[in-house]
Amino acid sequence: MSKELIRLENISKSFDGELILDDLNLTIHENEFVTLLGPSGCGKTTTLRIIGGFETPDKGRVIFDGQDITALAPNKRQLNTVFQKYALFTHMDIAENIAFGLKIKNKPQEYIEDKIHYALKLVNLEGYEHRMPESLSGGQQQRVAIARAIVNEPKVLLLDEPLGALDLKLRQDMQYELIRLKNELGITFIYVTHDQEEALTMSDHIVVMNQGYIQQEGSPEDIYNEPENAFVADFIGDSNIIHATMVRDELVNILDTDFICVDKDFGENKPVDVVIRPEDVELVPRGQGTLPGTVSHVIFKGVHYEMEVQAGGFEWLVHSTRMFDAGTEVDIKVDPFNIQVMNRPESEDEEAMVIDV
Amino acid sequence: MRSRIEKIYMGIILVFMYAPIATLIVLSFNGSKSRARWGGFTFKWYINLFGDDKILNALANTLIIALISTVVATIIGTLTCVGLMGLKRRSRAFIMGITNIPMINADIVTGISLMLLFKVLRFGTGFVTVLLAHVTFNIPYVLLAVMPRMKTINPNVYEAALDLGAEPFYAFRKSVLPDLMPAVLSGALMAFTMSLDDFIITYFTKGSGFDTLSTKIYNEVKRGIQPEIYALSSIIFVVVIVLLVTSSMIKGRQGTGAKKKVSLYKVEKKITSGQAFAIGAVTVFIIMLGLYFGGVFARKSNQLFVYNAGEYIDPKVIDMFEAETGIDVIYDEFETLEIMYAKMVQDDSAYDVICPSDYMIAKMIDNGMLRELDLDAIPNRKYIGEQYLESAKSFDPENKYSVPYCWGTVGILYNKNMVEEPVTSWDILWNKKYAGQILMQDSIRDAFMVAEKRRGYSLNTTDPDELSKAADDLIAQRPLVQAYVIDQARDKMIGGEAALAVIYSGEVIYTQRENPDLAYSVPDEGSNVWIDGWVVTKHARNPEAAMKWIDFLCRPEIALMNFDFITYSSPNTAARELIEDEAIRNSEVAFPSEEVLERCDTYSYLGEDGDALYNDMWKKVKSGG
Predict the structure, then answer these.
(1) DSSP H or E segment with residue A29
(2) Cβ contacts (< 8 Å) between A105 and chain B: which residues?
(3) Of A26, A83, B430, B580, which has the fewest Cβ atoms less than 10 A away?
(4) Does B274 score more than 70 pLDDT?
(5) B312 and B351 share a domain?
(6) Do B160 and A87 make contact, defined as CB atoms within 8 angstroms?
(7) B609 CB-contact burial (10 Å; exposed 0-12 / middle 13-18 / buried 19+)
(8) Residue ranges of the alpha helices (H) in B258-355?
(9) Residue B354 clears pLDDT 50, i.e. is over it
């Protein structure tokens, strides 16, 4: 793994007596595309603003490249931010916007011109130097904001839901654009979003947050395939989350039916939650599976069919390329590797930490 | 048909709204001094206006106050908006509510409370207090203009500038301020207009010796309005209109700016720099004006505060005194002695030297408000006629506190073309034939004197029965009276707007000069003979200069200049000898005969109780019973 670049140590932050971040610890490495993912109010934007210097934590330290920068003003930090609503200077043209930071650093005119040219090329806006921001589309404005930030050669680029205001198609295009940019620039991106698909598409490392706590960190695959709790499972993709009992190692009782799994060390007859992704639920003709049920709804989704199956008193969500008509009696079958067993929170306190409302 | 009616209706509304201003503007070009007569088109009043140092000085004060208070209030107001954005919505709404109160609050309350505060804090009133007051009442207008715009600004823009390495102030200037600028300019214009326009608050906070245009005009109006003031008011009207149109143009552009994009944006940018240039130029002009008229900031230490009745000195005399002694004279005028007295009670060191009348001098002596004169410093007192000093003993028993300045009688000025019978009695003022053509003096003692003398009472009576009879007479007379006036009596009589007026003898020579149909009579029942004298206040800040002032006015050639200007009888016998025009030197009006004087008395001070009695009766008369 590459070198550590930013470390947040025991960060706490409240606004008006409301705790937004509670004892948060996070390490970010060089040249990573890190995404802070979570619902609104989870503290992801506050975390980003603390890194950017726009908020000061009540407790804890921010370490940047080995230096404590907790109290350093934003204009002294070696990082730049791309804001959600573009935040362009509306009375300056595009070139003046991009040159803003460079002029402050007293760079020579020639250097500034080169940089403007380079940055506009990078974001595919060549020839827009003398347009005014208000004459550009949302996506173009966002790309100007990115260009304005990267000409300063920051070590880290902070992006606060930069695609939030764009429409779906543009958003998808920009996702690829951002990945390309990140690879070309070779710097660290810290990206804040509530869109799990965006996070899964672009990130090297995802930090799932809820109510001021980090719920889980890891690669997109880890987060998706092995959610550590019901919140993560629910927030990332569609899931069947079912109360169950761990009978013993490698055997779990789901809806009064025993399923073989691969999980161990939960103890015997312990209440747990299991997560089964809809694409991991196999539907087979009656008699060939583990749990009998009836198809109640079918929707064609293009790549696959989405079906709802009533089985064992639970409504299962199933994604499959093989279609069963509504009313068909089927059996449910799950590969042991696809059953994700999670601890069920017991105390109320623990629940508050984990369960999203 | 319908649209035609609508147009006519609109037309009527416009006429109602603008007819008064149109009248004003027309009169400002009227060659005649009288409102009733068109004397041909002229720029005379405009030219006179710009030759009048006092008015130009007030104009300079007004502009400097307006400019500085606007700049200060705009900066404070804009910064306040920035600060307010950092607050929670509820606290912000609360503070906005608080700051709006001074705007809704009656000006008079604001004015009085500021005056009291300055007094408590022992601020000397004048330029600084007026400036502070204007800054205070201007801030809410700036907030009102800037805050809505502030709310639309994305706070991330400022953060983006910080993020790109800008220091906080630079970031604000480069990112937020340009977006805010149209609102800031419109707030500043609003503040500027408010400051130009303000009268009440300025009046209460200005103290003595300092005037802005509005207070200056007010003083002028009290004394019979001069056509120069029409010219000035016309100019102010035009300036305010220009400011308002500019302000709404800025606002208009602010409104459409967001909808239309590139093209308009560039236009706006250009005009903003044009505006900046214009504002800069105006600023420089105003500051130069201020420097030219000088003395606004630099208060010289050797100052003399003089308080006199309106048009009661030749202005050249003041200049000569200043030139000769190097003393800087701050000259203010009062409308009535009662107003002067109230002012002195409020601030006993406001003026050094004052010119009140007989009974008022007695009252001030009685209340310990005057300082004994240093007669060694006033050698020219020897030119004052012995008989006048003798008369003055009725209110200043040892001639210790006052030196007579002017004297005269009170009588009836009448228009020979409008009044047929001889005017020999006060009775004529109760003659129904002249209903609506009679002018009475708007002054307690003079009004009561007329009624008292008519009934044969003493003009110093404090007998409640006699007084209430006199009051009843005055109430009975009211339907016949066109108006209770002070100095306007003169202009109205010149203009032929009234037939009969109670007036001071000193006005007669001037009015006859302007309108030869006027004549003067002191009724047989007798009247008031009055003496005005210069006194020095107990708490005068510069008594030495005050003595010099009195001595200067006693010089025969100076007294003569004042006589020529004021046309009131001078007690300075040496000066009377210098009068070249024999007709005037021996004029029965200017210098009444012994026979006339014998039936006249001076007012004496009636004591607190007597004053209170007269005041009560006067209120009854003024309220119509």
Answers:
(1) strand A18-29
(2) 165
(3) B580
(4) no
(5) yes
(6) yes
(7) exposed
(8) 262-293, 315-325, 337-346
(9) yes
Among chain B residues, the shortest Cα distance to A131 is held by: B262
Is residue B13 situated within a structural domain? yes
Q: How far is CA B16 from CA A306, B5, B19, B23, B239, in A?
A: 77, 17, 6, 12, 21
Nearest CA distance, B142 vs chain A (angstrom): 22
Closest partner CB to A104 (pick from B166, B175, B178): B166
CB atoms within 10 A of CB B280: 10
- Which residue shows structure tokens 């007989």? B358
Q: Are A90 and B160 in contact (CB < 8 Å)?
A: no
Number of domain units in chain B:
4
CA dist A308 and A297 (Å) reads 5
- Say yes or no for a CB contact (<8 Å) between A74 and B262: no
Q: Are residues B153 and B233 in the same domain?
A: yes
Q: Residue range B218-228: average pLDDT?
A: 70
B40: left (phi over 0), alpha (psi -120 to 50) or beta: left
Q: Which residues in B lie closer than 8 A to residue A190 (C-beta atoms)?
A: none
B175 touches chain A (CB under 8 A): yes
Buried b (16+ CB within 10 A) or exposed e, B436-467: ebbbbbbbbbbbbbbbbbbeebebbbeeeebb
What domains can be seen in chain A, in order of their start residue? 4-225 (3.40.50.300), 239-354 (2.40.50.140)
A104 to B88: CB separation less than 8 angstroms, yes or no: no
pLDDT digits (tens, 9 = 90+) for B135-157: 999 999 999 889 988 888 888 89
Residues B160 and B143 in one domain: yes
Q: Examine the domain organization and report whether B157 and B272 are in the same domain.
A: yes
Whether residue B253 is found in the same domain as residue B233: yes
> Which amino acid would we find at residue B84?
L
Residue bearing tokens 């899964």? A200
Domain enclosing residue B464, as ranges? 409-529
Whole-angstrom distance, CA of residue B589 vs CA of residue B408: 9
pLDDT in the model for residue A355:
42
| Residue B441: its H or E element | strand B438-441
Whether residues A87 and B166 touch (CB distance < 8 A) is answered with: no
Give A345 or B214, the one with higher predicted confidence. Answer: B214
Residues B212 and B332 in one domain: no
HSE-CB of B120 using CA atoms within 13 angstroms: 6
How far is it, in rounded angstroms, from Cα B172 to Cα B178? Answer: 9
CA–CA–CA angle B289, B291, B293 (5° rounding): 70
Q: Which residue of A15, A56, A81 is the best one to mutate when testing the B interface, meaning the one whose CB has the most B CBs within 10 A?
A: A81
Q: What is the pLDDT of residues A133-186, one digit of tens each?
A: 989 988 889 889 999 998 998 999 999 988 877 778 888 888 888 898 888 888
Of A75, A145, A149, the CB nearest to B166: A75
| Domain harbouring B379, CATH code | 3.40.190.10
Q: Quick one: B165 and B287 in the same domain? A: yes
Cα dihedral sign, A304-A305-A306-A307:
negative
Closest residue in chain A to residue B258, using alpha carbons only: A134
| Domain co-membership, B57 together with B20 | no
Domain boundary among B496, B529, B562: B529
Distance of CA A204 to the CA centre of its chain: 10
Question: Is B580 a domain residue?
Answer: no
ipTM confidence: 0.80
Alpha-helical runs (H) found in A129-167: 138-150
Q: B594 lies in a domain?
A: no
Across A53-78, average pLDDT: 91
- Would you say the pTM of this structure is higher than 0.80? no
| Rounded-to-integer distance, Cα B79 and Cα B87, Å | 13
CB contact under 8 A, B161 and A100: yes
CATH at residue B102: 1.10.3720.10
Average pLDDT over every residue of B7-15: 89
Q: Of A233, A211, A210, which is closest to residue A222 (Cα–Cα)?
A: A233
